[in-house]
């Protein structure tokens, strides 16, 4: 049985990796939150933690961190103690009865059609980096991918003839999503530029200047640069294009269940929280359908 705090956390990380199939990013974040809590809890280790210890920690965070961050930290700590209690390593789970802080649901930024058109037209078409960036934006908007799914793509995941791409989502769940003709054209132009530059026809689709796989942070940075250059007022991120994808589909009348499948959401409630219908369209539908509008 693990005895030191680091032993416990290493065992918990192995559990997250194998039983929960959590991503490396999720594991790092959970361990960082657990270490932060245990540092505040004192030197007694996990066996000395009581419910009041956790409540005191939450009080120290209140006002010092966003409610969403506090909720995430508590989820990490709750997961650790639930794992230890379920495995018989603790007599009781001290997180039982600890309420999660209520958070405000904020809708992510989404772009208008004009914003999307300006952004997609910004990358240069006469450079390898420009063709890569345009292909990134086209694919994010066309297929609603998470940025981690996009950066994990290899060329053999793409089927241009069928207009489909195979992605590995959260929890290592695989799904196949359609790719629009504009995105396919952008990918084809980018691949031709890659071949002309001497890059391999296999391996990662999106590469950095050194030929390595592009990271999510790099995608965020390049998008920030193009958003400024496009003159778009919204502070858009790669995730904003995923939300824009869902919003525009919903606004055009797509079924919410279909959008759920395309986004790879396990629960429909997540999709309902993720998408919205603008007030103008609601008012138009009301005026057109209600007999006493």
Query: What's the CATH H-level homologous superfamily of the largest domain?
Result: Intergrase catalytic core
Shape: globular
Element order: H for helix, E for strand: HHHHHHHEEEHHHHHH
Major sheet strand order: 1-2-3
Percentage beta strand: under 5%
Total of helices: 13
CA radius of gyration is 23 Å
CATH domain class name of the largest domain: Mainly Alpha
CATH architecture of the largest domain: Orthogonal Bundle
Enter the CATH topology name of the largest domain.
hpI Integrase, Chain A
Total beta-strand segments: 3
Query: Unreliable segments (pLDDT under 50, ≥5 consecutive)?
Result: none
How far is the N terminus from the C terminus? Answer: 69 Å
Q: What structural category arises from helix and sheet content?
A: mainly alpha
Report on the biggest sheet.
Answer: 3 strands, antiparallel
Domains counted in the coordinates: how many?
A: 2
Mean pLDDT over all positions? 87
Short description:
The chain is mainly α and 293 residues long. The protein contains 13 helices and three strands. It is 56% helix and 4% strand.
Would you mind describing this structure in some detail?
- It is a single chain.
- This protein has a 3-stranded antiparallel beta sheet with strand order 1-2-3, with no helix packed on it.
- Helices cover 56% and strands 4% of the residues.
- The protein has 2 domains: 5-86, Orthogonal Bundle (DNA polymerase, domain 1); 113-284, Orthogonal Bundle (hpI Integrase, Chain A), CATH 1.10.443.10.
- With 293 residues, the protein is mainly alpha-helical.
- The protein starts with a helix and ends with a helix.
């Amino acid at each position: 049985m693990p005895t030191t705090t680091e032993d416990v956390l290493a065992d918990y990380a192995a559990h997250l990796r194998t039983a929960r199939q959590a991503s490396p990013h999720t594991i790092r974040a959970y361990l960082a939150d657990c270490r932060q809590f245990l540092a505040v809890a004192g030197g007694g280790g996990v066996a000395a933690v009581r419910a009041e210890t956790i409540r005191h920690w939450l009080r120290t965070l209140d006002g010092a961190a966003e409610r969403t961050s506090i909720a995430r930290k508590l989820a990490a700590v709750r997961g650790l103690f639930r794992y230890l209690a379920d495995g018989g390593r603790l007599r009781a789970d001290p997180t039982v009865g600890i309420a999660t802080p209520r958070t405000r649901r904020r809708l992510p930024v989404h772009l208008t059609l004009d914003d999307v058109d300006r952004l997609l037209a910004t990358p240069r078409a006469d450079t390898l980096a420009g063709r890569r960036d345009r292909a990134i934006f086209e694919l994010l908007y066309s297929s609603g991918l998470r940025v981690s799914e996009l950066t994990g793509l290899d060329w053999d995941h793409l089927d241009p003839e069928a207009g489909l791409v195979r992605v590995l989502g959260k929890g290592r769940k695989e799904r196949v999503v359609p790719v629009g003709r504009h995105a396919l054209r952008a990918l084809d132009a980018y691949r031709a530029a890659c071949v002309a530059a001497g890059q391999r026809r296999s391996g990662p689709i999106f590469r950095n200047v050194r030929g390595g796989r592009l990271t999510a942070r790099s995608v965020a940075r390049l998008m920030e640069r193009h958003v400024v250059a496009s003159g778009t007022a919204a502070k858009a991120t790669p995730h904003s294009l995923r939300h824009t994808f869902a919003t525009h589909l919903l606004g055009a009348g797509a079924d919410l269940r279909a959008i759920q499948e395309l986004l790879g959401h396990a629960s429909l409630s997540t999709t309902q929280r993720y998408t919205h219908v603008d007030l103008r369209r609601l008012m138009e539908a009301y005026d057109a359908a209600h007999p006493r509008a």
